[in-house]
Amino acid sequence: MTTVAGMDVAARSPVWPWAARLHFRQGEAIFAQDEAADMVYRLVHGVARTSHILPDGRRQVGDFYFEGDLIGIEAEARHRFSAEALADSEVLVLRREGSAAYDARMVERAIWRATTEELRRVQAHLLLLGRATASQKVAGFLLQFAERLRSQVVVLPMNRQDMADYLGLTVETISRVLSRLQSEGLVEFLDARRYRILRPRRLSELAAD
Amino acid sequence: MTTVAGMDVAARSPVWPWAARLHFRQGEAIFAQDEAADMVYRLVHGVARTSHILPDGRRQVGDFYFEGDLIGIEAEARHRFSAEALADSEVLVLRREGSAAYDARMVERAIWRATTEELRRVQAHLLLLGRATASQKVAGFLLQFAERLRSQVVVLPMNRQDMADYLGLTVETISRVLSRLQSEGLVEFLDARRYRILRPRRLSELAAD
DNA sequence: CGGGGCCTTGATGCTGTTCAAATAGAGTGG
DNA sequence: CCACTCTATTTGAACAGCATCAAGGCCCCG
């Protein structure tokens, strides 16, 4: 599904003009699991997902990333998660350290901010996964996304399989829960990817959060 | 269960001599959920656990901490997790920033190291929680602890309820899985808290890791 | 010796998975 | 624009694994 990336180092970024800018098509891998983690990737435009393949073949989705996010921040020498583009994306590639760039300190600070943000989000994800029921997980997921993309209609960048692997459930369960939430009038789905929250309060209670 | 801590600022630490040293008895709270997160806590001696109470009353255990670990590293202004002493413990309390101490930079670096370590461990925890079956979770847990406390006989500092809340299971399931692992000869329990891994390879396969 | 945690074991029910099939949607070429 | 194909999503039915409820055992400590 994810193919090797086309390495067209071309345009220049207004933020870090010296950084290499890469383009990834939908489904392409930005970096691989177990690859050396000496680079970080700034998502200039597009959407991405990180995931980890377990030895038994199952997949745990780590997180979803949007414009401006730094991807590939990890605590070890090698990437525990891989990253893939969920839509056509532009990415700035930055060397983590040892860069001779004049604004190396700025990069350092950006990495520090991104690390704490990453920690915050992994903790939130952990609490979602720890939830008791599938409904709690899905409700929490919908709320979390609505908050991140403040707008009336929320557009999901990922498919049901990604949601399932993010929440530790199956696509069938996701689908069933969404159908039930809709029939109960808590949310409304315009199509599989676009939804609107009709009763934030009750959805929040359901999420137990 | 957890009582308020006795605030006996007394002894001096060889590492950060200017830091306040507190003593906590087993079960006492080191800091509370939603408390301002302007301090970090260095565990000089003892064992501690962080946990988060969900609105529905359930509890998610965050992590377990040992001598030398920094506790209370979080990305937000308030603690998402509380911390409790699992055994009588000594703790150095450090102000996160704005400290006028002569080695403020050293503290900063320690916090940076602890943050990346925290991220690494939360990610590992996430992958454990994402595991499919109870056996995979418990096997992973036993391996993780054995690795952390390299020794023949591993002594667990927590009870079954803590394990259950860490893994998102019930005490009964924990107990059943442990019994089965033992009857299959993968591990041996000397008593409820002390175990030895008899077949690391097969336990590792079971954990799918 | 008795009380109270903590842990283990048993029986039953429910939730989510698995397997299977139908439906909807997107993309392609006529 | 329509027919066709391929994939994603939804829905259904049966099953499995974990939770729940309940009881009994173990161990520490008074």
For the biggest sheet of chain A, the summary is: 4 strands, antiparallel
Query: Could you tell me the radius of gyration of chain A in angstroms?
Result: 18 Å
- Most extensive contact: A-B, 33 and 33 residues
Oligomer: homodimer
Q: Roughly what fraction of the amino acids of chain A lie in strands?
A: 15-25%
Number of beta strands of chain A: 11
Task: Estimate the helix proportion of chain A, in percent.
Answer: 25-40%
Order of helices and strands of chain A: EEEEEEEEHHEHHEEH
Count of DSSP helices of chain A? Answer: 5
Give the spatial strand order of the biggest sheet of chain A.
1-8-3-6
- The first-to-last residue Cα distance of chain A is 35 Å
User: How would the global form of chain A be characterised?
Assistant: elongated
Strand-helix topology:
Two copies of one chain form a homodimer.
Chain A: E1 20-24, E2 29-31, E3 39-45, E4 48-53, E5 59-65, E6 70-71, E7 82-85, E8 89-95, H1 104-130, H2 134-148, E9 153-155, H3 160-167, H4 171-183, E10 187-189, E11 194-197, H5 200-207
Antiparallel strand pairs in A: 1-8, 2-7, 3-6, 3-8, 4-5, 4-7, 9-11, 10-11
The structure holds a DNA duplex (30 and 30 nucleotides).
Give a summary of the structure in a few sentences.
Chain A is an alpha+beta fold and about 210 residues long. Chain A has helices at about 105-130, 135-150, 160-165, 170-185, 200-205; strands at about 20-25, 30, 40-45, 50-55, 60-65, 70, 80-85, 90-95, 155, 185-190, 195.
